[in-house]
Amino acid sequence: MSMISIEGMEFFAYHGCFAEEQLIGTWFVVDLFLEVDTRQAEQSDEVNDTVNYLEVYQVVKREMEINSKLLEHLGRRILNQVKETFAMVGHARIKIRKMNPPLGGKMNFVSLEMQA
Questions:
Q1: Among 12, 58, 66, 114, which residue's beta carbon has the most beta carbons within 10 A?
Q2: CATH number at residue 49
Q3: Nearest Cα to 102, choosing from 1, 9, 27, 11?
């Protein structure tokens, strides 16, 4: 098994519990780690024998465009969609960072990590 990672995907989106977050939006950074059997692709050198990174990015992008109040809900939706769309993904882990969250103080981000 191999670990395919797509890290530092940036999205401007409208996730959050506060009405202002759903109106104003903020930046999110998503890292996705996919455990995939790449043996066939290692021999064939064909993208159809592995997980296509562009297609994975498009799945994440579509899910990021659907507003959620909680990062937990967003993360689970992304993981479920990735596993449903790409049968060769055995295990998946995601990290979502919400940049500059409105929590009343200075901080770079809050984050959530989960796996499926």
A1: 114
A2: 3.30.1130.10
A3: 27
Whether the model clears a pTM of 0.90, i.e. scores above it, the answer is: yes
d(CA 16, CA 109): 13
Among residues 61, 69, 83, 98, the one annotated as catalytic is 98
Range of the domain at 82: 2-115
Into how many domains does the chain fold?
A: 1
One digit per residue, the tens of pLDDT, for the chain of length 116 reads: 899 999 999 999 999 998 888 899 999 999 999 999 999 999 999 999 999 999 999 999 999 999 999 999 999 999 999 999 999 999 999 999 999 888 888 889 999 999 99
Please name the residues in contact with 100: beta carbons below 8 A apart, sequence gap of 6 or more.
Answer: 26, 27, 107, 108, 109
Residue 95 falls in the annotated catalytic set:
no
Distant-in-sequence, close-in-space partners of 7: CB < 8 Å, separation ≥ 6 = 31, 32
Element (H, E) at 14: none
Spatial CA neighbour of 78 closest among 62, 97, 99: 62
